[in-house]
Amino acid sequence: MQGRHPKVSVCIPTYNRATLLKQSIESVLGQTFSNYELIVSDNASQDETSDIVRKFKDDRITYIRGRKNIGLIKNFNYCLSMAKGDYITLFHDDDLMIEDNLDLKVRALDRDKNIGLVHSNFHIIDEKDDIREENAHFLGKEDFAEKGLFFLKKSLLGYNRVNAPSAMIRKECFLRLGGFRITIQFTTDFEYWMRIAMHYDVQYLGKSLIKYRMSHNNQWTSAKYFTVKNGVMSNNLTALQQEYMARIKILEQTKNVLGDWKNIRILVRKGIIAAANRLIESQYLKEGNNVMALRAIAQMCNKFPELFLDKDIIKIWLKSFLGLKITGAIKMAWSTEKN
User: Fold this and answer.
1) Whose CA is closest to 258, among 160, 150, 117, 116?
2) How many Cβ atoms sit within 10 Å of the Cβ of residue 136?
3) Which helix or strand (DSSP H or E) is residue 235 part of?
4) Going by C-beta distance under 8 Å and a sequence separation of 6 or more, which residues neighbour residue 276?
5) Distance CA 127, CA 214 (A)
6) For residues 260 and 201, is the Cβ–Cβ distance under 8 A?
7) Candidates 3.30.1330.30, 3.80.10.10, 3.90.550.10, 3.30.70.270; correct CATH number of 8-213?
8) Which of 219, 225, 217, 215 is nearest to 189 (CA)?
9) Is residue 2 helix, strand or coil?
10) Residue extents of the structural domains in the chain
11) Distance (Å, rounded) from C-alpha 27 to C-alpha 212?
């Protein structure tokens, strides 16, 4: 981009997604808001990515191809470091922007200097670009702002509240807080939004402003974090560990920020144990695979020693050792005896 400072930096880290990347770039170039730069950071793709990008004749596009693959998170952070705009959106190379995406998010950040992060509702599309679910965000279709610490508590005790490609942040967030944590792969965005919320408020826009692609046929970088059974995809143990790690990293930093920190820490631990219990039962015990269930618990406790002596973890140990049929029978006998 020549002659003017970009208001927004649209950063697209990419790797071997030439065809879908073309559509993603086209959706950015179709925005009603025009004062932006588009940085495509190619993580040493082996397909025709470079040819695809160079066909676009627009001086707002900067194409950078790495000599070697540096990994997903490092490429994210490289994009952030290259951004010149006041606001940054880190966009997926297989998703699509709806035409007023940048405009509405820029307006939200311009209106309130306390907002560090704005995110939005989204439609889910498949590999054919067909919409599979409209307005898919569980937060609904109404706009609202959240105080940073309220957002932080909700995230620690609930779910990731931000669909990553829908997010736009102030560049000052990156300059102040740094980028994504290399040690957290699957939920690195989750940790980053919570880190931002320690210092800034968060704006949600209820209008769907992106099309988020979900397809089981794509070779996802994050495929190792999912298990598919009977056509249903769910997070696996590795994903659960990453999610808990993200919360732990934030808890380490918020001891003097959150007034009820001790209670939140207890609830976070109970929440992860409950999630582990559901996962172990659905993915292992219902299949009669008690050995894998026991290994899963051992892995969790080895990675997070503070869980080892929790009474609820001990219950999962017993359930996994005895199996669902025996523990079910014991529960029934116990209930009968009490009555």
Assistant:
1) 150
2) 15
3) strand 232-235
4) 237, 240, 296, 297, 300, 313, 316
5) 7
6) no
7) 3.90.550.10
8) 225
9) coil
10) 8-213, 223-338
11) 12
pTM of the prediction?
A: 0.90
The CA radius of gyration of the chain, in Å to the nearest whole number, is 22
Eight-state DSSP code of residue 166: G
Burial class (CB in 10 A: 0-12, 13-18, 19+), 33: middle
Write out the H or E segment, with its range, that includes residue 41: strand 36-42
Nearest one of 175, 210, 180 to 194, comparing CA atoms: 180
In tens, the pLDDT along 257-314 reads: 898 999 999 999 999 999 999 999 888 888 888 999 999 999 999 999 999 888 999 8
SS (H, E, C) 183-217: CCCCCHHHHHHHHHHCCCEEEEEEEEEEEEECCCC
Rounded percentage of the chain residues whose pLDDT exceeds 90: 75
